[in-house]
């Protein structure tokens, strides 16, 4: 029980540290809060429902942490990545290292998944903003159609 108390207090401390630091990179902040949310969700889920509860708690905690820390445009992708990474990391870590391995795997999986989802969403938004002008025909003007003929 003392290990769980130390683990929970350290996650709360690190959560306060990362959320109050305003100069952190966006992907680092999303990864850190998703990892902390996943560990807390795993601990709470394990107390409430055993191993299945821990698996569900790691997914919900990772998704919640990623959604809180990310921008509005990137929230869905980061939450999906954090949830899937947290659940997958918990399952793999539990097989390799038992309960402690499950906690560590949950944190690492949620951090990686949320950072990846956040980055993919940012890249997609950048690509869509670059292609908008060509799709809408602003470069040809309103007098010409897509093949260059006058309307």
What is the SS-derived class?
mainly alpha
β-strand number = 0
In the residues, how many domains can be counted? Answer: 1
Shape: elongated
Largest sheet: none
Share of residues in helices:
over 70%
Assembly context of the chains: single chain
Report mean pLDDT, rounded to a whole number: 83
Termini Cα gap: 76 Å
Strand content: under 5%
Low-confidence stretches: none
Spell the H/E element sequence: HHH
Total number of helical segments? 3
Radius of gyration from the CA trace? 21 Å
Account of the protein in words:
- This protein is mainly alpha-helical.
- Helix content is 83%, strand content 0%.
- It has one domain (2-121).
- The protein contains three helices and no strands.
- Helix 1 packs across helix 2 and helix 2 crosses helix 3.
- The longest helix has 62 residues, at 75-136.
- The chain starts with a helix and ends in a 15-residue tail after the last helix.
- Residues 133-151 have a biased composition (Basic residues).
- It holds the Pfam family Gly-zipper_Omp.
Question: Short summary of the structure?
Answer:
The chain has 151 residues and is mostly helical. The chain contains three helices and no strands.
Which properties best describe this structure?
151 residues; mainly alpha; 3 helices; 0% strand; Glycine zipper domain-containing protein; signal; Gly-zipper
What is the topological layout?
Layout (H helix, E strand, L loop, with lengths): L1 H19 L5 H44 L5 H62 L15
Helix pairs in contact: 1-2, 2-3
């Amino acid at each position: 029980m003392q290990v769980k108390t130390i683990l929970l207090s350290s996650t709360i401390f690190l959560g306060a540290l990362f959320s109050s630091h305003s100069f952190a990179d966006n992907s680092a902040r999303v990864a850190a809060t998703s990892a902390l949310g996943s560990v807390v969700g795993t601990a709470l889920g394990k107390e409430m429902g055993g191993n299945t509860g821990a698996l569900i708690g790691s997914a919900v905690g990772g998704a919640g942490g990623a959604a809180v820390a990310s921008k509005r445009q990137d929230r869905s992708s980061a939450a999906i990545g954090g949830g899937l990474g947290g659940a997958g990391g918990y399952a793999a870590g539990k097989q390799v290292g038992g309960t402690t391995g499950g906690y560590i795997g949950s944190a690492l999986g949620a951090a990686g998944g949320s950072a990846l989802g956040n980055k993919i969403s940012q890249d997609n938004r950048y690509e869509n903003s670059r292609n908008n002008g060509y799709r809408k025909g602003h470069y040809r003007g309103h007098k010409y159609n897509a093949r260059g003929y006058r309307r």
